[in-house]
């Protein structure tokens, strides 16, 4: 299984924002911009816009419009579950599609049930981690992100 690029971008954006939140040298979190994210990760603005919009709808980030606009985390990193983020960005479709096209083995096959249980175990494991779990090396991440711009 491989996560969609969309999900990967969403996680990168959240890490970027969390690294700004963790910067004790600032008074408050610095607003990030689409351009910063694009430059840092070498991503297209179109893709980043879509992901940022989705993260905003999920109330994981707060967006501010205008000349000095941008976006910041809307929740504390320790309150953002990795399982929630990945499930929301991936969509919650079945990992095995047996009906379209119809698989002749379906009446006797155990694959769908086994894979469905594996998927739930995957999310149960990720439930143990939050965005804060990814920020153990926040100072190093900030340096890496700054170098990417």
UniProtKB/TrEMBL annotation:
Pfam family for this entry, one: Rrf2
Keywords assigned by UniProt, alphabetized: DNA-binding
Keyword DNA-binding found: yes
InterPro entries in the record: Tscrpt_reg_Rrf2 (IPR000944), WH-like_DNA-bd_sf (IPR036388), WH_DNA-bd_sf (IPR036390)
GO molecular function terms listed in the Swiss-Prot or TrEMBL record: DNA binding; DNA-binding transcription factor activity
Protein origin, superkingdom: Bacteria
Keyword DNA-binding attached: yes
CC terms in the record's Gene Ontology section: cytosol
Protein name stated in the entry: Transcriptional regulator, BadM/Rrf2 family
